[in-house]
Every structure is written in C-alpha cells, then in structure tokens.
TrEMBL record:
InterPro entries in the record: Glyco_trans_35
Protein name in UniProt: Alpha-1,4 glucan phosphorylase
Keyword annotations of the record: Carbohydrate metabolism, Glycosyltransferase, Pyridoxal phosphate, Transferase
Family, per entry: Belongs to the glycogen phosphorylase family.
Cofactor dependency: pyridoxal 5'-phosphate
Keyword Hydrolase carried by entry: no
C-alpha cells in the first residue's frame, strides 16, 4: 500500500540521515574527543570511514552523503563524488526483482526533492561518461 511505502521511505531516510550525521560528526572530532581539534578536510574521510550498504535498504546514503557534502559542507560536485565513491560500498544479496526496493518518483519527489535532483544528476553524469548522452 502507498502509505506503507511512504512510511518505509521515511524510516529508511531517517536512519540513513542520522547515521551519516553521526559519522561526519565523529570524523570531524579528534580521536580523543577534544572539541578543540576538528578535521576540516573531508577528502580524508575515506581513509578513516567505510560505509557498507547492504542491499537496497540503506541506498539513500549515497544521495544523502552527496547532499551533505555539496549543500552543507559546500564542496564542489567532483570532490563530493570522489569522497562518496571512496567511502561507500554496496553488497546485493539477491537478484530477485521483488526483493529490490523501488520508490514511485512522485513519492520521492514529494518527500525528498533534493535527493531526487541528486539522483538525476548522478544518472546524467553516468550516462554522459558512458557516451549515452
């Protein structure tokens, strides 16, 4: 049902967003917890952080991390994408189509419009590199 899909998308986004905020907060803080020292160079994050996406449930981590890096941390797209692809890894445990989550575009547009823009841009760049565009 639509309401169930909407709730599921909200839940998955909440968990992903909270986790990424915590990861970035911890990365910026020194290893001794001092608030005096903050790591500002996020390009070093993949040296200390690995995010393993297990199946499609946490897949929102990619556009959410891009949103954080581009919109909040003010990195340009290329630097942000480099951090994302060096930080995130994906494992899929099934090839059954019914096991892979899919979201209606209108639901995504209503709940996460910025993320949909980012996903479209990732797709556009992917197609451009492949010579499709």
């Amino acid at each position: 049902f639509f309401e169930g899909k909407e709730l599921r998308l909200k839940q998955e986004y909440f968990v992903v967003a909270a986790t990424l905020q915590d990861i970035i907060r911890r990365f910026k803080a020194s290893k001794f917890g001092s608030t005096e020292f903050v790591r500002l160079d996020l390009s070093k994050m993949p040296d200390k952080v690995a995010i393993q996406l297990n199946d499609t449930h946490p897949a929102l981590a990619i556009p959410e991390l891009m949103r954080i890096l581009v919109d909040i941390e003010k990195l340009d797209w290329e630097k942000a994408w480099d951090i994302v692809i060096r930080t995130c890894a994906y494992t899929n445990h099934t090839v059954l189509p019914e096991a892979l989550e899919r979201w209606p575009v209108n639901l995504f547009q209503n709940l996460l419009p910025r993320h949909l823009e980012i996903i479209y841009e990732i797709n556009r760049r992917h197609l451009e590199v492949r010579g499709v565009l």
